[in-house]
Amino acid sequence: MDEWNVYLSGEIHTDWREQIKVGAEAAGLPVSFSTPVTHHESSDNCGVEILGAEENNFWKDHKGAKLNAIRTRTLIENADIVVVRFGDQYKQWNAAFDAGYAAALNTPLIVMHDGSLTHPLKEVDGAALAVAETADQIVRILRYVINGELAG
Question: Would the pTM of this model clear 0.90, i.e. be above it?
């Protein structure tokens, strides 16, 4: 494979994606990364901004979720590996859905979260091929999977 497509899903409040991208570049890995829309307000408001206002928040969220799903589903379906990060600040139902979608597609899944989330995420972890706690571990996994190298 010339270039691996890695989809980075999950928590949007820390720089974990950037850490993985920088680490993969430093390791010289042939990887292209894709992500959901990580600008919170854009993601929440895309439906009403593009398709028109809604008085009921259910329909506002419904429109936005469907537009976001076009991107998310397409990128997950085209990914060679899906990495899903769970943070401890918010309940990331969308991240759990992305992990389940990747698992249903039989796309290799790597989950990343703090050890304190092991119990609540036991089913998600059970579907993953690897469970990591740090961005460095993700880069090392990618390096091993792509190049067969443990150095790093």
Answer: yes
